[in-house]
Amino acid sequence: VTIDYDRFSMDDAAGNPFYMPDSKAAQEVAVFAEKKMEEHDSVGGVIECVISGVMPGIGETVFDKLDASLSKAVMSIGAVKGFEIAGQGDPRLCPHHAHAGGFGAAAAFGSTNNDGFAFKNGRIIKTTNHAGGTLGGMSGGTDIVFRAAVKPTPSIAAIQHTVNKSGENIDVSIKGRHDPMIVPRAVVVVEAMAALTLVDLIFTNMSARMDRIQKFY
User: Fold this and answer.
1) How many helices, marked H, and strands, marked E, lie in the chain?
2) Which residue, 48, 33, 35, is CA-closest to 1?
3) Is the distance from CB of 18 to CB of 30 less than 8 angstroms?
4) DSSP structural state of residue 106
5) Closest CA to 49 of 132, 129, 147, 133
6) Do strands 144-150 and 45-51 pair parallel, antiparallel, or not at all (unpaired)?
7) 129, 136, 44, 139: which is closest to 89 by C-alpha?
8) For position 207, what pLDDT does the model report?
9) Spatial separation of the C-alpha atoms in residues 144 and 132, rounded to whole Å
10) In the structure, what pLDDT confidence band is assigned to residue 100 with cuts at 50, 70 and 90?
11) How far is residue 199's CA from residue 193's CA, in Å, rounded to a whole number?
12) Does the N-terminal or the C-terminal CB of the chain have fewer CB atoms within 10 Å?
């Protein structure tokens, strides 16, 4: 179940327990999650983060690339098992949008995946954002877009197979109340990690030029 970007609404996100900016999709997830709970199972999901208003040039070209730093921070969050920098509207998540990026870029061509540039209103702009707001390891002035894949909650009541300390094969069923989905609670964590990463890189950028260090001191 994925959102429809044509129905995107942050007001909707605040009004449903799955924090999805599409009320119709949230209703579909509610039905699906309830079914999996009845089966004593859990589900995972994808969190998309869009960062607007970041000035160009934040990050580095080699060791502390913006996309690499975001990846390390987000992959450090428990239960996150995948990360991609991508343009908004990945066709794998929203088929009627043509923009490809992240892992979707592996199936694209340079002629369609490359971002174009144009001169408009006295400044240079990007005509597309397939690169998800990054260019050569630094911010490019467009929205930074990334997605984090969150695994299903491992604590489930269904029978699972394991081994005890005596080396015997045993079956276990985890008791107690456990969320069937970690994704909604992880949204704010992803936002916080992205913000902390950007602040660190902005501080680094402030001392990246000798004239700025001389001016500061």
Assistant:
1) 6, 9
2) 33
3) yes
4) G
5) 147
6) antiparallel
7) 129
8) 85
9) 5
10) low
11) 10
12) C
pLDDT at 175: 84
**Nearest CA-CA partner of 48 in 78, 81, 20:** 20
Strand order in the sheet with 144-150: 45-51, 144-150, 80-85
> What DSSP state is assigned to residue 132?
T
Structure tokens at 179: 């969320």
pLDDT at 196: 97
163 contact partners, CB below 8 Å, separation of at least 6: 169, 170
Place of tokens 């913000």: 195
Distance CA 59, CA 138 (A): 4
* Residue 169 structure tokens: 């094969």
Q: Residue 59 gets which letter from DSSP?
A: B
Sign of the alpha-carbon dihedral angle for 78, 35, 8, 112: positive
What is the reported pTM?
A: 0.86
Using pLDDT thresholds of 50, 70 and 90, give the confidence band for residue 89: very low
Dihedral over alpha carbons 202, 118, 112, 145 (to 10 degrees): 30
CB 129 within 8 A of CB 87: yes
How many other β-carbons are positioned within 10 Å of the β-carbon of residue 113?
18
Once rounded to an integer, what is the mean pLDDT over residues 2-6?
A: 89
Distance CA 154, CA 40 (A): 11
